[in-house]
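In this supplementary section we document a worked example of the pipeline. Step one takes a protein sequence of length 344 as its only input; no multiple sequence alignment statistics are reported here. Step two produces a three-dimensional model, which step three serialises into structure tokens for compact storage. The input and output of this example are shown verbatim.
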Amino acid sequence: MDIKKEVFGKYREKQVDAYTLKNDHGMEVTFITYGGAVTKILVPDRNGRLENVVLGFGTLDAYIEHTHYFGAIVGRVAGRIGQSRYDHQGETVELTPNEGENHLHGGRSGFNSGVWEEEEVAIEFDRVSVKISYLSRDGEEGYPGNLKVFVTYTLTNEGCFHIKYQAEADRDTPLNLTNHSYFNLSGDAKEDVLGHVLQMDADSFLPLSEENLPTGEIRPVEGTAFDFRQKRTIREDMGKSEETKNGYDHPFVLNKSGNITLSHEGSGRVMTVGTDQESFVLYTGNFLTGDILSEGVPAGKHAGLCLETQGYPDAVNHPHFPSVMVKAGEEYRASTSYTFTVKK
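The serialised model returned by step three reads:
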């Protein structure tokens, strides 16, 4: 087990570092302190060949210039907030609009574009971890209160990459954090993800409006293109629904203790996602624009898919959704794990 730290660049006079976490079996996870972005996850295929299974760039400039949130920590609130506002205790809070009239992924300058600080580095016999932090100040992107956020990345010898989120604010604030990694288990983005096999323990999904905002309905997946309770490829029912003709970009409601499993037959790689969050967004890279990845290949449409574990999107505007409000002085906690195995 080991951790390597290198300088990755400089952003607004702040040094940006890259950390590489390594286990004893060749698996590596690399992230940078700009946005906490995960840039590489090297995982062996059934023949032992190590390849990158997330989309990432080789330079800091590429992360600054492109806006697809590759590998980043997203906050304060993941997803969209309708009309960039919400009401709390009789007061209307106005947020920064950055997608038409709506607020997306924390606004124009969300957690994905901040430089995070190192808090703690730990090397143990069966795991390595790095804890980073970010201070989101009162009024940032319109959000109330000073918020201190901690994220811990851990890699174990059993092939598990774990993300733990912690935060506390001095005023009531909505908070709904996620990681926006684009996965492609074929390795080094050799294929698109439409042939990947997905299975998830989700009986319901959230239908969306034309602005990709939840309508408020919670609809069963039974008999729809959103039913992944049994294994099937991404493309299998994609074209059978007007909502999914270009791919998926939809929130699903996880059953209690539900898991998500993604696999790729050609490589044998399998990724199992476990989380304590109530929902996740499946996004199949429908609007990727061909930016050149660190492997020298373009990230075109469907080059990767996101499994964004989180609370319900736009929950601040739907009182019947589980709340994402964190009270002043209350500790926010969330965690998600990605365990990689190989099917022979």
